[in-house]
């Protein structure tokens, strides 16, 4: 199961990287088209879609690598069962919020598909297409938070090293 979850997080990160390359392509196309005096409609909109997709798809991988910003001032002052209780409470709340975020992101993409909602910019892209990356990214994030919660409850969640704490704060 651990290999499957890690593969899921790594796959989402790889998709995020592909979206970043696509974003670079859109920006370069926009710059080149301006310099050569031709217009490619929708490049700004697609650059925005790709930027959002890259951000959402990278969320779970970032969480699992301990790169999300955490406020650890109170947590570092606690020891033993108080610290574990605070970690479980924080991860429980984060998991709940991530599940709600995933649910409503999926619901938004589905409603955009059902209502044939399209972008108001010149590209007129069906909005459910770029919203899929948000929905998928939030689902993977919810899985990652649930994974972290289960690992914490089982006592198998790795603790960040001291140099990692300096980097995160």
From TrEMBL:
<feature type="transmembrane region" description="Helical">
    <location>
        <begin position="88"/>
        <end position="110"/>
    </location>
</feature>
<feature type="transmembrane region" description="Helical">
    <location>
        <begin position="130"/>
        <end position="151"/>
    </location>
</feature>
<keyword id="KW-0813">Transport</keyword>
<comment type="similarity">
    <text>Belongs to the TRAP transporter small permease family.</text>
</comment>
<keyword id="KW-0812">Transmembrane</keyword>
<protein>
    <recommendedName>
        <fullName>TRAP transporter small permease protein</fullName>
    </recommendedName>
</protein>
<keyword id="KW-0997">Cell inner membrane</keyword>
<comment type="subunit">
    <text>The complex comprises the extracytoplasmic solute receptor protein and the two transmembrane proteins.</text>
</comment>
<keyword id="KW-1133">Transmembrane helix</keyword>
<feature type="transmembrane region" description="Helical">
    <location>
        <begin position="45"/>
        <end position="63"/>
    </location>
</feature>
<keyword id="KW-1003">Cell membrane</keyword>
<feature type="transmembrane region" description="Helical">
    <location>
        <begin position="12"/>
        <end position="33"/>
    </location>
</feature>
<dbReference type="InterPro" id="IPR055348">
    <property type="entry name" value="DctQ"/>
</dbReference>
<dbReference type="Pfam" id="PF04290">
    <property type="entry name" value="DctQ"/>
</dbReference>
<feature type="domain" description="Tripartite ATP-independent periplasmic transporters DctQ component">
    <location>
        <begin position="24"/>
        <end position="151"/>
    </location>
</feature>
<dbReference type="InterPro" id="IPR007387">
    <property type="entry name" value="TRAP_DctQ"/>
</dbReference>
<keyword id="KW-0472">Membrane</keyword>
<comment type="function">
    <text>Part of the tripartite ATP-independent periplasmic (TRAP) transport system.</text>
</comment>
């Amino acid at each position: 199961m651990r290999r499957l979850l890690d593969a899921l997080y790594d796959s989402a990160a790889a998709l995020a990287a592909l979206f970043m390359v696509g974003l670079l392509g859109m920006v370069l196309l926009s710059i080149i088209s301006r310099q050569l005096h031709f217009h490619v409609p929708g490049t700004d909109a697609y650059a925005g879609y790709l930027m959002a997709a890259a951000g959402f798809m990278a969320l779970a991988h970032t969480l699992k690598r301990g790169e999300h910003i955490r406020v650890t001032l109170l947590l570092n002052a606690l020891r033993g069962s108080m610290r574990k209780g605070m970690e479980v409470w924080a991860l429980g709340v984060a998991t709940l919020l991530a599940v709600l975020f995933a649910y409503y992101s999926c619901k938004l993409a589905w409603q955009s598909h059902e209502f044939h909602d399209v972008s108001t910019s010149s590209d007129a892209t069906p909005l459910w297409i770029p919203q899929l990356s948000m929905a998928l990214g939030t689902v993977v994030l919810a899985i990652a938070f649930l994974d972290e919660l289960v690992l914490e409850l089982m006592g198998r969640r790795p603790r960040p090293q001291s140099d990692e704490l300096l980097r995160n704060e």
